[in-house]
Amino acid sequence: MKKNWIFVICIILIFSISFYIGIKIISSQSNKENNTEINNSEIMETTASEDEKISPNAILIIRTYYEKCAHLNEETDTISSELVNINKEELQQKYPECQIEKFEKDEIILKKTVDKWCEEHFVLKDENGYIVVYCIGEKGEENLYLNTNITTEYLPATDKHALSKGLYIYGEEELKVILQDFE
């Protein structure tokens, strides 16, 4: 009877070890299949994004951030013929000063940062009794933009004072409104 118990215990022990080894083998095969599926999908995604090319009907958006004035200018245009059918890597080579924010066959968004003033800054000054408009250049210099026929003779004292120091304006629309007000 004692031999029977030893025999039963050995059978249970062999069965348990075999069961444990079987689970480990199945588990490792499942992990290998999952890793293979993940690697295949990663390869397909990488290949798809590398193979994606710019369509002839795509829109190109270039966002320029001007550090001196902290303004962001956005220009939208259609794709030039030289950019049609190029991939993301080739686009980066053509625009090394830009970061590619979005790359899809129908829409490209590039961003660049420049250490300049944007072209939308103006200064109005009183010179010899007339309002003169200067555009602020890339380095902050004042460049003559417009000589007006608007006299300062009849303006209120506060406006005359502001113009004597320089009245800073941002944007052509604001410039037009202010000049109309002074007329």
General description of the model:
With 183 residues, this protein is of the alpha+beta class. It contains four helices and eight strands, in the order αββαβββββαβα. It has helices at 2-51, 88-94, 157-165, 172-182; strands spanning 59-66, 71-78, 99-104, 107-114, 121-127, 130-136, 142-151, 167-170. Strands 2-1-4-3 form a four-stranded mixed β-sheet, with no helix packed on it. It has a four-stranded antiparallel β-sheet with strand order 7-6-5-8. 6% of the residues are buried. Residues 43-49 have low confidence and may be disordered.
Figure out the total of helices.
Answer: 4
What sequence of helices (H) and strands (E) makes up the elements?
HEEHEEEEEHEH
The helical percent reads 40-55%
Q: Could you give the order of strands across the largest sheet?
A: 2-1-4-3
- Shape by Cα distribution: elongated
What's the quick description here?
The protein is α+β, with helices and mostly antiparallel strands.
Secondary structure blueprint with pairings:
Elements: H1 2-51, E1 59-66, E2 71-78, H2 88-94, E3 99-104, E4 107-114, E5 121-127, E6 130-136, E7 142-151, H3 157-165, E8 167-170, H4 172-182
Parallel strand pairs: 1-4
Antiparallel strand pairs: 1-2, 3-4, 5-6, 5-8, 6-7
Give a quick set of tags describing it.
183 residues, alpha+beta, 4-stranded antiparallel β-sheet, 8 strands, 32% strand, elongated
